[in-house]
Amino acid sequence: MNIRDFEYLVSLAEHKHFRKAAEACFVSQPTLSGQIRKLEDELGTALLERSSRKVLFTDAGLLLVEQAKKVLAEIKQFTEMASAQGDSMQGPIHIGFIPTVGPYLMPLIVPKIKHDFPDLEMFLYEAQTHQLVSQLEEGKLDCLILAAVKETEPFNELDLYEEPLVLAVPENHRWGGLEQLDMQELQGSTVLSLGDGHCLRDQALGFCFASGAVEDQRFKATSLETLRNMVSAGSGITLLPELAVPQEKSKDGVSYIEAVNPQPCRKLVLAYRPGSPFKPRFEALAKYIANSLQES
């Protein structure tokens, strides 16, 4: 039994397919299949249901998969500590970010980081919050850049930016020429929103519901750009994060209005596992990002 066996086992559990699991581990399918069977023989217990055409784990197999994930996470942390790079801005770093942050924040900061820290090798991954949290727990990601939500509370969080949410309305809307709008004016209005799984959905709708607005149940967007296009087409109004808003007050059929009383906002943070040896690196990176946003 060795570390690679654990990696094969976890990969098979994630992909539920021998060929895809083998490709993820950069080995041939016979190699992975043979090592799994060898592991079963060594442990003296069946990990898979051989009679099924699908990849189905036995109860013992599922338990060992979870333990293998923990072992691999501990090995990763051990390796990181041994590398003695935790206090420097060099080496690889795997960063996860949510779809309502990444496309707007990353173009602002990534070129600067690459210029100022050329020895820092960044690997970037975009996914929804629940997926990123799971990958951070398993050690697949080093840190996350996302909006602070309940799911991130178990991690250490470094504040990056208190991001206002801006009201977006069609240019020909009665509010189209306004610079500012009291949120209480939304009472009785119907607002467009993102679909389930986006943390911004609950955050934005929370402010709208508090103001007496209701959600348009006929449509749920998959992205902020879809929301923007629906507003431009005159299908409704919505709240968009400031980083996703252009500098112009009106552009491409959409007018952007500062919302007040209260000002809707979300807190962007950099989250990482407690006990990570890269704490100094994360602190330096968070400070750098926060300063870059203030300058933008």
Automatic annotation (TrEMBL):
* Top-rank lineage group of the source organism: Bacteria
Does the keyword field hold DNA-binding?
Answer: yes
MF (Gene Ontology) = DNA binding; DNA-binding transcription factor activity
Q: Which PROSITE patterns does the protein's record reference? A: HTH_LYSR (PS50931)
The residues covered by the HTH lysR-type domain are 1-58
- Which UniProt keywords are listed? Activator, DNA-binding, Transcription, Transcription regulation
Q: Does the keyword Zinc apply?
A: no
Gene Ontology CC annotation, any one: protein-DNA complex
Task: List the InterPro entries.
Answer: LysR_HTH_N, LysR_subst-bd, WH-like_DNA-bd_sf, WH_DNA-bd_sf
Q: Where are the transmembrane segments?
A: none
Entry's NCBIfam families? Answer: PRK11151.1 (NF008361)
The entry assigns this protein to a family as follows:
Belongs to the LysR transcriptional regulatory family.
Q: What is this protein's record name?
A: Hydrogen peroxide-inducible genes activator
Its lineage opens with:
Bacteria, Pseudomonadati, Pseudomonadota, Gammaproteobacteria, Vibrionales
